[in-house]
Amino acid sequence: MSPSSHLPGPIEVERKFVPGPEVEKSLCALGAELVEEITFRDSYYDSPDLRLTLNDIWLRRREDNWELKHPPQRGARGLNGASTQYMELTSSDDIICRVSEELGVPCPRNIESFGLNEFASFVTRRRRFQLPLGENSKTKVVVDLDEADFGFAVGEVEVLVKTQEEVEDAFKKLEEICRLLGVFRETPVQGKVSTYLKMNRAEHYRQLLEAHVI
Ligand SMILES: Cc1ncc(C[n+]2csc(CCOP(=O)(O)OP(=O)(O)OP(=O)(O)O)c2C)c(N)n1
Ligand SMILES: [Mg+2]
How many Å apart are CA 84 and CA 77, to the nearest integer? Predict the structure, then answer.
């Protein structure tokens, strides 16, 4: 299989928060609009030696679509302070190439043929809000309020940027929005997958902590 010829996609810069009872009121006060309400199942996969996730590579099937998140720079971590930066692959060919490289195996015909194990699977109900564009700003800011079916809720502020040079400003923007929403915390807030693993797969969770991935 030839490496993909298209340009890499945007960098997703995100900051998670604990959604308190006032968050919707705060979103409303900032002029945010509810733009989407969706429900989806995510199933996450790794090799038996956990080589993908221990290298901060997250392969999932969201409903019928395969997606792979990886840090923009090889060998680096996506978590930076309390924010994260990841790129997402959505083409099966690109995902196969990346997983083959990580596992050191030849490219199979399809993702299923890697024989990976599902390590987490849950349903999320998501409400997506969009903040109004600020004056002189073209940056679209999205806030997701997620409820997972294992009794866990988390919020996330997200912006998409095109280059690594824009990431620092994006981190600042996310911090500012969390302060405006009254949900700012210095330390990272754990997401759905980390929480699922802590509850259901303690040894996998321990190894991720030890590898400083989460
Ligand atoms: C705070 C924090 N978040 C994620 C990670 C790494 N990580 C763990 S699981 C994981 C994959 C799941 O990503 P996440 O953004 O938590 O899920 P979700 O919001 O449902 O996906 P989206 O719709 O945004 O694409 C990552 C990147 C980390 N180390 N620290
Ligand atoms: Mg997210």
Answer: 9
Protein residue whose Cα sits closest to atom 29 of ligand 1: 214
Indicate if the pLDDT at residue 208 is higher than 70.
Answer: yes
Output the pTM of the full model: 0.95
**What residue has token string 């996310």?**
174
Q: Which atom of ligand 1 is nearest to the CA of 82?
A: 1
Cα–Cα distance list, 44 to 60, 141, 178 (Å): 4, 26, 28
| Residue written as token pair 């009872």 | 21
Q: What is the predicted ipTM?
A: 0.97
Ligand 1 pocket, residue 156 CB under 6 Å = yes
Cβ atoms of 146 and 128 closer than 8 Å:
no
